[in-house]
Amino acid sequence: MHATDTAPVSGTPSSPSAAPSGPADRVRRGPRRLLARGAAALGATALLGVTVTTGSASAIVNGEDATRHYPFMATVPVEEYGAQCGATLVDKQWVLTAAHCVNPELATLTGKIRVGSDHRTTGGSVRNIDKVVTAPGYVQDMTGTSYNKNDLALIRLDRPVSQKPVRIADKPGPVGTPTRILGYGTVVEAPSLEDAKFPNRLQQLDTRRGAVSECAPGWAGKTRLCTVSPKPKAMACNGDSGGPQLQRGKNGRWELIGATSGPGSLREGCGTGPGLYSNVPAFKSWIHKTIHKSG
Q: What is the SS3 string spanning 247-258?
């Protein structure tokens, strides 16, 4: 099956930044969530009166402010949420995110991609969206009882950035390998988007590769990674979708192994249970072919 190459997406040149200027900007009512239970849209309420936190507020959920600079971290503005998805710079002109973040049935991209900033709405390089390519075989779970399949998408920027892309790992480390996740998602477990609190500072959480048995039965596998936090009640949540999961390579540098897809269990909330991540190395050939073919 071939990747679905969508029509070029307007970057809304009139928008001056990669994210809305305020928490109530561009509000729409509808059944939308950035990172829904089981990676499905479960009918969260519209984003109204969302609090934006500053300083050292803990997050992703129960994480911490980023302790170093991540030049490959990017954000994808999504109109319905008044917030963002995460993304990772994998080429000077391409970022990788979750397919459900660019699915036109779930989200409308607006504004510009921001790359290489430690803050959600300022700094880094900002670029318009030139093109979106969804991974072959992507299937969106709309029932809330399962997971998204092949939940990845590439976004081409209208021109290259100066930041250095991250290397995609050849394969994820074995179960138990220390990993780190990044994002600007809600810092609290939010039953609805109106209860979410998004940080201005980039957040990080040290995690590990979980065993297949630590996520819901059948959810993890060759193309999906179960991710577990040693810290209780801590994990990626709403607004973190598409963001990176990293491991240390042999040279000690960060390598990309995962992209946030959704919670790894139906029994617990997205910020308290295991996380489910798309296995990026499993799609490495598609990623390189897409970038090379599209130029």
A: EECCCCCEEEEE
Please give the Cα distance from 81 to 100 (Å, whole number): 13
What the block records as the tokens of 92 is: 């000077």
Q: 25: which 2 tokens?
A: 């900007």
* Residue 213 token pair: 């048995």
Dihedral sign (CA 242, 244, 245, 251): positive
Q: What is the pTM of this model?
A: 0.81
Phi, psi of 11 (to 5 degrees): -90, 10
Phi, psi of 4 (to 5 degrees): -85, 115
**DSSP 8-state assignment for residue 139:** B
- Cβ 73 vs Cβ 218: under 8 Å: no
Average of per-residue pLDDT values in the chain: 80
Distances (CA, A) of 179 to 96, 119, 272: 18, 22, 17
Half-sphere exposure for 263 (CA within 13 Å, toward CB):
27
pLDDT value at residue 191 = 65
pLDDT(148) > 60: yes
Distance from C-alpha of 48 to C-alpha of 294, rounded to nearest angstrom = 39
